[in-house]
Each structure stands twice: as structure tokens, then as C-alpha cells.
Design goal:
The structure holds two protein chains of two kinds. By secondary structure, chain A is an alpha/beta fold. Chain A is built from nine helices and ten strands. Helix content of chain A is about 30%, strand content about 15%. The chains are: A alpha/beta, B alpha/beta.
């Protein structure tokens, strides 16, 4: 039996007091423990940014790599051992900015990993520049007259690429978020949970209070997650009403399911077969 | 007198020049002859001018020669571009349909014969038949090769190609070609393959299970070969969204416990350099092939170079140990790949294998069959090897810099890796003591890594006062150049380097100590190996024979430049 505290780690936390990340971390622990997973059964891959530090604060196996490159590392690990439970902890800058191409490719592959994107709409670690998801007009020390590009919409993009699990959570709704993460990890195939969170240090627009007034749980509105068209519509809603929850879910064969060699077991479990290799060499 | 002739078959891209060349090379191999073939083509899918230059001899050959004995012009351009390379008594065959017939070239109705055999697409097969007719090859043997080549095709296609080959063979019956090799009814000992294939077979034999790549000439062939092997062997080749993804996927796969590789060329390697550093600081074993081409930037996509030596040795920010190898031939490429995977895991460092377009696309005979290793040491640990798995630290200090490597989700031991500077347990640390200790831990591997490096291969070194020194793919050309120089009375030997980094300085000094003049032979403009030798050994490098036009060294290029030095 696993307990939430099994995932506690004594490494000193380095986030700002009041950061939305604390609730995301708590929701992750709750989801993993609720699924009876234990730290030694979980691999978390992360990139750079405050979200990238997450696996240091949660007991697990982890690979904390480069800015924007968590998804390809996770994809490689999953190809090597498709029995692994792999989560990616990324952020709006890491995943949609630096790693945008990998995001598109991961969705298209339908690789069975769970992508948790901490979306605070601002660069925190580099102290307050706009991010790909910043709203138009968002003023920073760098974007002095406000952001002049349209925000990246990860949910619409994921849906348009045929993603099988697309959800949005909010760090201020911890129990709801834990449920989303649990559903995402349980989903066989690529799952995206884009997590809205405040940045207490650098985003004074999209604050906790700002979100609290706006978020609406789609499950409570009778949304059917099998309905792609409505999911697409929900993904484009932003402003006075911000939908959260599972927008879309559809099971299908994942990337590793489609590779015949992997049906016989993970590559990492294959032992070297000298006779088979020699037969290949002789066959030239 | 042994035969030593070269055939150049040229035409437009899309005319099947390479197919003719490979058929002829296969024929030679099956008739007990040695062959070496270079593939020269432009960066385009149709048109332009490309050629396949095949050298044939009864004795072992490992490099191209500049002199052409038989020129087969599938287009008039071939004749114009290459006729000055024809030796005295050499023949140029040209398709009667092309301009240039009559200007010293023998017109053969290649296209017409192909059309009669079933379609002008088989002009290349007619040309192959004509070549073999001139060379006095037994047609029955070629018939078997064509039958085999088209075994998967429709019976009509097979028959038409046989008719086309026969028509070409007969069309030249009255032409006297003075060089005819001895065709035997037995195969040569070695296997015929190109460098890309040798590298892929080495990866297979090294137990590589995942290859991630993004297409880039001239590296694509390696991954295409690996992909073909995956038809029947459980390994996975994935075309990544870009080179950055390719190296990071390779790292992820290796972290999870399989042997993994990627292959690219210089531009792609540039994109991979941050990943190279990630492999280094996370101490994840990966193998990267850099098949060089001229640069910078796009440079000459389908041509050859050795311009990335110092870049690869120094690539990525800051300092860390890595292996760099540059195979010197087909057999060496197979062996180097196996060693690269092994040493990369043994020391938990990235290993880079440097080849080039010339090597990847050239065909040669191996020395013999390739033997699969009996087994591979994987240098990993699991819970059973630990007194207390819960206390496992991925970057534990051990004295030699190599920490016991466990695999993630393989027991109680948690495997925590970070590209940030870290503590022994993998968690981020900015402490001065941790930083110094980790830099020193990684660097501590270097001396043992250096002891793994093979000394340069030496030819005619004893007593030679002048040594040519080469690295990688030019080995065959340099060795033959040395033989010719010695035949001409020159006092010269050569050193051929395949194990480049950590530079085997002591071994190099030992083998080169008797010489008083070192001359590097390199396909770059600034003599990068020369600089490396001076830096690592303090030995003076007097001259360098350099070529950076994107074309491979012919033996004569080296001999001529040598004479110009004196």
C-alpha cells in the first residue's frame, strides 16, 4: 500500500513561497499514491524552469535534462522500456517555446507518457519575460509595450493533432487536478494536462484570485469527453469563463503498441544473442 | 602483370548509375577480384551529373585512383568532364544518342538497345553488359547476379534486364580493350559493402537496440541500413523531429538501459552539441556518428571532408571526457562501433565516431567475414549488488570517477540524473565543494580512457625518416601512396590514426620517435590533426598534404602533393 508521504523527499524545496507549484506537487503525489504506484515505479523526466525542478522535490526516479528537451528523453526511455510509467514535468516556456517541435511530435506519436505542463504564462527562472502562452498585451520588463503575438493554445493544438487525452487543470483546485493527473497517467497513450497556475513573483495579471473567479469544471456542465468538436470549442474559451477538466479522451494504440518488436517485451529486457547476430552477419 | 584498372560510369542523377556500378562491383567480387568504388553525386534527385568510379584489381585495393581506363558516358557531359582522365589506350563508350560521339569516343547505341530490350530505363543494364564485354567477363556469371538482383521483381523485368545486359555485352564484341582482369570462378574472401553498412553492422553486433536520427546526407545511409536490419532483428529505428530530439531520445533510451545511437553530419552535430554535454554531465553512455561533409552551414551536402576534427573534440560548452574514433576501413568501422558502445558504457561517457561522405558511400571488400562478439559486458548494477538499495547514489564517488550505474525502475534503488551540477545523489547543488568534486570525478576517467586507445597503425615506419600521418577514412589512400613513394625510392612510411581522443600521446611519440619529418594528410584546410599532434605531443609537424575541394583523395593526389613539398 502506498501512501502520499512515500513520495516525500527531504531535498530542500527551492520554489517561491506561495507558488502554484506546491499544489501541483501535492496533486501529483496524491494521484500517484492513489494509483498504488510507488517511487521506484515512477520515472519523471523534466526540462528547465521551475517545473523542471519538480522531480527533485518528489521521491522518484528522474532525469532532469535540458531546456525544452524532456519529451524526446522521455520518448527514448519509453522506447527502451515501454513498461515504465513516465511523466514529464514541463512548463509553458520549456514545452511550448524551446521544445515546441517536440510537443507536436509527441502528440503525433501518441507515445504513452503523461505531460504535465505548469502554465503560469511567464518565465519565472529568468525573472519575468513573456512566455508563449502570455496573453496579448502582457507587459514585462522585456516586452515593455506588452506582448504583441497571439498566445499559443496548447489544448487546441493537441486536439488538432489528434491527441487522445487533453485536459486543463488549475493549481488552485488541487483535488480536481489530482483526479486529472490520475486519469492522465491511467490513459494508454499520450496525455496532456495543461495546468494553470499563478506566478506570485512575475505574473500579476493571472493571479490565483483571477483564476478562482473564472474557472468552470467541464464535468459539471455535462461535457462529454468523447465530443471532439465541443472539446475544441472549450479549448478556445478564455476570459470571463475558463473551462478546466478533461476536454477530450479517446483510447487508441499508442506509439509503442504500433512497433511489432515491442510486442515481445521491452527492448531493455532483451539479452544479446550472439548466434542471432552472427546469422544476420552471415546473411549479407 | 596484375590488372589495376578504373572504370568511370557517369550520367545524370536518376539514370541508375549507382545500380550499374554496384552490379559491376558485385560481379568483380564474385569473380575473385578486389574492388573499390567511390560514389560521386550532386545534391539533387534528378539531372546534374553523377558518377561511380570502380577500381578493379587482382590485388587488394583500398582507395581510388585518378587514372581511368574505361569511361562509360551515359550523358555527353560525362565525356566532356572526364575524358582528360583517360589513360593512353583507354576507351570511352558513349551512348549514340548523346552529343560527343565521334570525338574520340566509341558510340554504342545504349538507349536504342535498352528500348529494344523492353524500355530505355534499362540503359544502365546495357552499359553494365558493355563494360563486362570489354573486360572479358564470363556472361553466365553476370547472368546469375542480375537474376539475383531482380529476384524480387516481376519475371518480365528480370528477363528484360538479362536481354539488355546481353545486348550491351554483344555490342562491344568487336572492340578491343587491352586490360582484362583474370576472372575466376570463385568469390573474393571479403564481403562487398559500403561504409554505412559496415557501421550499421557494427552497431548491430554491439547490441544497439535503438537508433534515433534525423535525415542528413551523408549520414542517412547508416540509419537506413540499421532500419533494414530491424526488419528481422528486434531493434527500433525512429526518425526524430530534428537532431536535437534525436540525441535526446538516444540519451533517454540509454538512461533507461539499452544501447542507443544516433548518426548525423556536421550541421546536425552542431544541433546535438547541447545534448552531447547532457550525456556527459548525466554520465549517460551514447554513441554518435558524425559523417562529415564540407561546411560550414549547408556547405557541400553530398561531398566529403574531414573538417570537424577539432570541433568534435571540443564540442559543447565547458570540459568533459569523451571518446572520438575515426575508422580507417570497413573492418575497422565494424570493430570501432563495437568498441565505441563498449567503452561508452564502461566509462559512462559519450563516444563519437567520425566518418565522412567518402567512407559512408564508398564500396570496398572487407578483409573477411564479420564475427559477432560472444557477449557484451554491460557495466550496470541492480539492487542485488547493493548492501542498501535505498541508499543508492547515481554519482557516488569511487576514486576512478566511474559510479555504479543502476537503471531506473529496476528495483528499490532510485536513479536520479540531472543536467544541472549535482550531488552524488543526483540532486542539484551549487556548493563549491560539490562542483569541484564532480568536475574532478568526471575528469578522473581520462587517464584510464587514454589507456584504452590503440596506438596509430604503422606502415613502413622502421627506419623511415619521413612519416605521413592520417586519420580516419583516408588510410587506404595514404598507405598506397606510401607504397608508391617507396617504389620510387622515397624514404617514407605512414601512421594511420583511428583512435583519436583521448589522444594516445605516449603511444604516438613512441611509434613516431624515429622519424624526423611528420607530414599530416587531411581533408581540411588548416591541418587540424597537425595542430592536435603538436598540442598533445609537442612534436613538430613539418608539412601537411591537404585537400578540401569536397572530393576524396586519390592515391595520386597524395603522391603529387608529396613531391611538391620537396
Amino acid at each position: 500500500m502506498t501512501d502520499i508521504t512515500d513520495f516525500d523527499c527531504d531535498y530542500e524545496n527551492k520554489w517561491c513561497p506561495g507558488c502554484g507549484n506546491f499544489n501541483i506537487l501535492a496533486a501529483m503525489k496524491e494521484a500517484l499514491a492513489g494509483m498504488k504506484l510507488s517511487p521506484e515505479n515512477v520515472l519523471i523526466v523534466s526540462g528547465i524552469g521551475q517545473a523542471g525542478k519538480t522531480p527533485h522535490f518528489l521521491k522518484c526516479n528522474f532525469f532532469h535534462g535540458l531546456h525544452g528537451r524532456a519529451l524526446p528523453v522521455a520518448t527514448g526511455a519509453k522506447l527502451a522500456n515501454h513498461k515504465l510509467t513516465v511523466l514529464v514535468s514541463s512548463g509553458d516556456g520549456d514545452c511550448y517555446g524551446e521544445g515546441g517541435n517536440h510537443f507536436l511530435a509527441a502528440v503525433r506519436r501518441n507515445i504513452d507518457i503523461t505531460l504535465l505542463t505548469h502554465d503560469n504564462k511567464v518565465y519565472g527562472l529568468t525573472k519575468g519575460q513573456s512566455s508563449p502562452t502570455s496573453d496579448m498585451g502582457f507587459v514585462t520588463k522585456m516586452q515593455r509595450s506588452g506582448v504583441i503575438s497571439e498566445p499559443f493554445n496548447p489544448l487546441s493544438v493537441a486536439l488538432s493533432l489528434g491527441a487522445g487525452f487533453v485536459a486543463r487543470g488549475f493549481s488552485g483546485e488541487k483535488a480536481h487536478l489530482a483526479g486529472l493527473i490520475r486519469a492522465a497517467v491511467s490513459h494508454k497513450g499520450f496525455s496532456l494536462v495543461n495546468i494553470l497556475q499563478p506566478c506570485v513573483s512575475f505574473n500579476h495579471l493571472n493571479t490565483n484570485g483571477w483564476y478562482k473567479k473564472r474557472v468552470v469544471k467541464v464535468a459539471e456542465t455535462g461535457h462529454d469527453p468523447a465530443d471532439w468538436n465541443t472539446a475544441m470549442h472549450l479549448s478556445r474559451e478564455w476570459g470571463d469563463r475558463i473551462p478546466i477538466g478533461i476536454f477530450f479522451q479517446k483510447q487508441g494504440p499508442s506509439f509503442t503498441d504500433r512497433i511489432a518488436h515491442l510486442n515481445e517485451g521491452p527492448l531493455v529486457e532483451r539479452t544479446y544473442d550472439s548466434a542471432a547476430v552472427q546469422a544476420m552477419l552471415n546473411g549479407i | 602483370m596484375q590488372t589495376d584498372i578504373s572504370i568511370l560510369i557517369g550520367g545524370q542523377a536518376g539514370q541508375g548509375i549507382q545500380t550499374v556500378g554496384e552490379l559491376l562491383a558485385r560481379m568483380c567480387q564474385q569473380a575473385g577480384l578486389s574492388v573499390f568504388a567511390v560514389n560521386d553525386f550532386e545534391s539533387r534527385i534528378r539531372g546534374g551529373h553523377s558518377f561511380f568510379q570502380l577500381r578493379i584489381s587482382e590485388r587488394r585495393i583500398q582507395a581510388p585512383s585518378r587514372h581511368i581506363h574505361l569511361l562509360v558516358a551515359m550523358s555527353g557531359e560525362t565525356h566532356a568532364l572526364h575524358r582528360q582522365k583517360l589513360v593512353e589506350g583507354g576507351i570511352c563508350l558513349i551512348d549514340s544518342a548523346e552529343d560527343g560521339a565521334g570525338e574520340g569516343a566509341v558510340a554504342v547505341p545504349v538507349t536504342q538497345l535498352a528500348t529494344e530490350a523492353g524500355g530505355k530505363i534499362m540503359a544502365n543494364t546495357v552499359a553494365a553488359g558493355a563494360c563486362l564485354g570489354l573486360l572479358g567477363a564470363p556472361f553466365e556469371q553476370f547472368q546469375a547476379i542480375i537474376t539475383d538482383r531482380f529476384s524480387g521483381a516481376d519475371a518480365n523485368v528480370r528477363e528484360n534486364n538479362l536481354d539488355a545486359a546481353r545486348a550491351g555485352y554483344r555490342a562491344v564484341a568487336s572492340i578491343n580493350f587491352q586490360w582484362k582482369p583474370v576472372w575466376r570462378d570463385m568469390s573474393s574472401e571479403g564481403m562487398l559493402m559500403n561504409g554505412a553498412r559496415a557501421l550499421a553492422l557494427g552497431a548491430l553486433a554491439a547490441d544497439c537496440r535503438i537508433g534515433a536520427f534525423y535525415p542528413m546526407s551523408p549520414a542517412t545511409g547508416i540509419m537506413q541500413q540499421l532500419s533494414e536490419l530491424s526488419d528481422t532483428y528486434p531493434l527500433v529505428v525512429e526518425q526524430a523531429e530534428d537532431e536535437i530530439a534525436a540525441i535526446n531520445m538516444t540519451i533517454g533510451a540509454a538512461f533507461a538501459g539499452v544501447r542507443a545511437m544516433t548518426a548525423t553530419s556536421g550541421g546536425g552535430f552542431c544541433l546535438m552539441t547541447e545534448g552531447l554535454g547532457l550525456a556527459a554531465i548525466t554520465e549517460t553512455p551514447v554513441v554518435i556518428v558524425n559523417a562529415q561533409r564540407p561546411g560550414p552551414a549547408t556547405g557541400l551536402p553530398t561531398r566529403t571532408a574531414q573538417g570537424d576534427l577539432l570541433f568534435v573534440i571540443n564540442a559543447a560548452q565547458d570540459e568533459f571526457p569523451r571518446f572520438v574514433f575515426a575508422p580507417t576501413g570497413m573492418d575497422d568501422a565494424y570493430a570501432v562501433m563495437i568498441r565505441a558502445f563498449d567503452l561508452s558504457e564502461k566509462y559512462q561517457v559519450p563516444a563519437i565516431v567520425m566518418t565522412d561522405q567518402y567512407f559512408n558511400d564508398s564500396f570496398a571488400l572487407t578483409d573477411g567475414p564479420f564475427d559477432a562478439p560472444h557477449g557484451h559486458d554491460r557495466y550496470t548494477v541492480s539492487d542485488a549488488d547493493m548492501a542498501d538499495p535505498s541508499a543508492y547514489k547515481r554519482y557516488a564517488f569511487t576514486g576512478n570517477g566511474i559510479s555504479p550505474r543502476a537503471l531506473p525502475c529496476n528495483g528499490q534503488a532510485l536513479v536520479c540524473a540531472a543536467g544541472n551540477e549535482h550531488r552524488q545523489d543526483g540532486h542539484i547543488s551549487e556548493d563549491r565543494e560539490d562542483r569541484n568534486a564532480m568536475v574532478e570525478k568526471r575528469s578522473a576517467k581520462l587517464s584510464a580512457m587514454q589507456s584504452e586507445m590503440r596506438p596509430p597503425a604503422a606502415y613502413h615506419v622502421d627506419g623511415s625518416r619521413t612519416l605521413l600521418v592520417s586519420w580516419g577514412s583516408t588510410a587506404g589512400a595514404v598507405q598506397e601512396a606510401v607504397s608508391r613513394l617507396r617504389d620510387a625510392g622515397e624514404d617514407a612510411g605512414c601512421l594511420v590514426m583511428a583512435d583519436i581522443w583521448p589522444f594516445p600521446a605516449a603511444a604516438f611519440q613512441e611509434v613516431a620517435r624515429g622519424a624526423d619529418t611528420l607530414i599530416t594528410v587531411e581533408q581540411n584546410a588548416t591541418a587540424q590533426l597537425g595542430r592536435l599532434i603538436r598540442q598533445e605531443t609537442g612534436m613538430p609537424v613539418a608539412h601537411s598534404i591537404l585537400q578540401y575541394d569536397g572530393r576524396a583523395f586519390c592515391v595520386e593526389d597524395i603522391v603529387d602533393q608529396y613531391h611538391q613539398l620537396n
